[in-house]
Predict the structure.
Amino acid sequence: MNIVQAAGEGVPFCKTGGLADVAGALTKELARRKHNVIFVLPLYQQIDRAAHKLSPTGVVLTVRVGRATHEVPVWEKKGQYGARTYFLESPHYFDRKGLYGETPGTAFPDNDQRYIFYAKGILELCKVFDFKPDIFHGHDWQAGLIPAYVKTVYQRDPFFADAGTAFTIHNMAYQGLFPSSTFSVTGLPSTEYSPAGIEFFGQVNFLKAGLIYSDALNTVSPNYANEIQNDWNYGYGLEGVINFRRDRFRGITNGIDQDIWNPRTDPHIASHFDETRLAKKALCKADLQHAAGWKPDDKTPLVAFIGRLDAQKGIDFLIQLVPRLAKKRAQVVLLGSGDASYQEQLSELHRDFPESVFYESAFAEAFSHKIYAGADVFLMPSKFEPCGLSQMISMRYGTVPVVTPTGGLMDTVPTGTGFMSKSNSYGDYVDAVFMAMNEWTKKRAWQTRQKRIMKMDFSWGPSVQHYLDMYKDAIRWRKGSHA
Ligand code: ADP
């Protein structure tokens, strides 16, 4: 199958969250199965051309955004199993600090233009490289316009006549909402500015475009699929649209890249280990304690959090819980950037409890590996969670997650693996954390649990098959729409 992957970020080139892990891993896994797959990314300032050995293709695309015409050099990188990643160069749009905004959680004022440019650039790229897609697979709002263009502007273009479109929602809370004036910049036919199209209560909604125009759609776990279809608390106003398209909608649980997240080979950790060599995990814990400025100490439980500092991640619970853990002589390591007030509050906890709380306000890939490997317990008190990768990564490293019963956490943390609180309340979450801490003191029971979670299969295998099934359905539905 000829497959085009489109997402605003992708491992190993650029990342702000799980979307990058998924887009990167899926590209690789599809190529591993001998599909002809290309992934297209904006050439952000953050992508180190020399380190990743990108090369210019010599091709220059012409892309129109509103009245402006852009000449766009295309760069490329051959990846594992022959997957190719192409990069659209535009200093005007992408040579900036930050992917979507100057700092995490903020947005550039011209994000509408930036991702109109991106979507149109991908379609032009296919034509110029004579890459005739069987399927376009777009992820999240940044890629939402692709199916809209395929179904309108390019509807009569024989080059894309058989191209099916699939779309994946990684988070309903981020929709790419812009003022109505954005509509004229998209270049879509005026009929599409309606509640049945891209319009959303007087605004332009890129995520909605993905939901309305794609042939098949999914989100990243069955439980979240259920939540966003039925409950306005999760659907962020788009639950009706999902419901309307429910016969084309499914949940497919994410995997993790088990080559990157592998305690047997991870280059970032102090000692390699697995379920048969758990004693070696202690060396990773000592290394993490050293990084936090503490002495090695295996008698103290080490609790960790890694994630975006956004209300979604339950940071309010962490802020209440961390001092209690510190007073109970547990150590806490926190890594995350985002909301400035959360950053300040976590820094304050670090200052108040220097012996037991360490907080790093950064996006730090290598340090995140050290934390997954060195911690005993991983906190994930999410308010909602489309799938969540951190709980799966931590389990792979024998670090026991404590999660709230929501979204993909319910699909990926079955009984007897991590700890799940009885409800989303703070009180129940604290109970679950202390239950975990209590079991940690019983070495045998703890190790049995660690061995169990380390043997769990989070590989992409089954999910890739589900995506291929979705692509086949999308192509069939696309063909059916011509009949
Ligand atoms: P989300 O996509 O909502 O941010 P996920 O759990 O799906 O959450 O994925 C988060 C990914 O981003 C994981 O790979 C996690 O390790 C990584 N991550 C989050 N914050 C940081 C950080 N500050 N430094 C390094 N990695 C981070």
